[in-house]
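sorry for the late reply, my laptop died twice this morning and i had to redo everyting from scratch. anyway the thing you sent over, i finally got around to it. pasting the sequence first so we're on the same page, its 81 residues, then the predicted structure underneath. double check i copied it right bc i was rushing
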Amino acid sequence: MRHEVESVLAESRDVHAVWRVHEYLSDKRLEIDAKYDYRYSVLVSVFARLVQEGWLSEGDLRGLAAEKLEAISRILGLGRP
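ok and here's the structure:
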């Protein structure tokens, strides 16, 4: 992320580049907030996303209740052919 910001600023002499950086960082903040949302009500979808992106393996989820594992598997199955 740092390199992207430095690149935008280095390649532009335009004062509006600062606003592009602001927009980029705001978008990244929202992405990170959604990815690591720890509210109980959304943990199943967060775990599914982290498995899909390779941050967790399905084995890492051992110990979760069977219905939660099934819900995660259903979510992961939606994106598979």
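The chain is about 65% helix and 0% strand.
thats about all i looked at so far, will dig more tmrw
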